[in-house]
Design a protein that fits this description.
β7 and β8 form a beta hairpin. By secondary structure, the chain is mainly beta. The longest helix has 10 residues. Strands 1, 4, 5, 6, 7, 8, 9, 10, 11, 12 and 13 form an eleven-stranded antiparallel beta sheet that branches. It contains five helices and 13 strands. It is globular and about 45 Å long.
Length: 255
């Protein structure tokens, strides 16, 4: 089954499910599901293989110099009184500064594609708004605010899953968060975007074709280790050490 699905995906048009694809409203239906796992799970299916594999950590930047930011959504709880709202707890890391945050994600739109990438499976997305408040008692904190888009599919059991059906295709991405960060102290506003496998509006930071690749000129802004971990085909001790650092659970540090 996996080989059949993979063959289908390889011969799909490169654009996949583009913005021009016809869609149908799914807003009332999405409220019947709890989709918190789409943001918090650390494993997912590639194509329709039932075996779960580790999902790469979200990648992101903050500010005009594309300083790397780590964002971890640790928990998401659906509001029992408003099924479009989720209460979020997580942590951020910039350089060595780790901060906690709380806030909400609110679904404003949900649609499904009339024709998906894989026959007999329903694919769709949710769009909405998020606002996260970092702990004001911690160093260098502020508020994250913006819009997001998350893609899903519904499996044969009627369960909503993280959509990685086109994972093998160039440019795969999901969980795209795009917005700003505003400092509590100075009220200065910085662009802050992050996502799975690609970053929305990463402009000259991302020099990759098939996958994300930070440009060398921004290496000293937090991207040096990433370039070592994923920029070499040969797995040298240096690369292995960089890969180990990329998979560290930094959010478990005491804060």
């Amino acid at each position: 089954m996996k080989n059949i699905i993979l063959a289908i995906l390889i011969f799909l048009p490169i654009i996949g499910l583009s913005q021009e694809s016809k869609t149908s409203d799914f807003f009332s239906q999405i409220q019947k599901y709890d989709i918190s796992d789409l943001w918090t799970s650390e494993k997912f299916q590639i194509e329709l293989d039932p075996e779960l594999v580790p999902k790469s950590r979200p990648i992101g930047y903050i500010g005009e110099k594309y300083q790397r930011i780590f964002v971890k959504l640790i928990s998401a709880i659906q509001n029992p009184n408003d099924k479009t709202e989720y209460f979020i707890y997580g942590k951020t890391k910039v350089k060595q500064n780790i901060c906690t945050f709380q806030g909400t994600i609110r679904i404003k739109i949900s649609r499904t594609y009339d024709i998906g990438d894989v026959p007999n499976l329903t694919q769709g997305y949710v769009k909405g708004e998020y606002i996260f408040y970092e702990d004001p008692d911690q160093k260098g904190t502020g508020t994250f605010k913006g819009e997001f888009k998350t893609a899903f599919f519904i499996n044969e059991n009627g369960e909503i899953k993280y959509d990685a059906l086109s994972f093998v295709a160039d440019g795969f991405k999901n969980n795209q968060f795009e917005g700003t960060w505003t400092s509590y102290k100075s009220q200065s506003v910085k662009t802050c975007n992050w996502g799975d496998y690609r970053i929305p509006n990463s402009n000259e930071l991302d020099g990759g074709a098939g996958e994300f690749s930070p440009m060398e000129e921004y290496a000293d802004n937090g991207w040096k280790n990433y370039r070592i971990a994923f920029g070499y085909s040969e797995e040298t001790p240096k690369v292995r050490e960089a890969l180990k650092r990329e998979t560290e659970k930094w959010w478990l540090e005491n804060k």
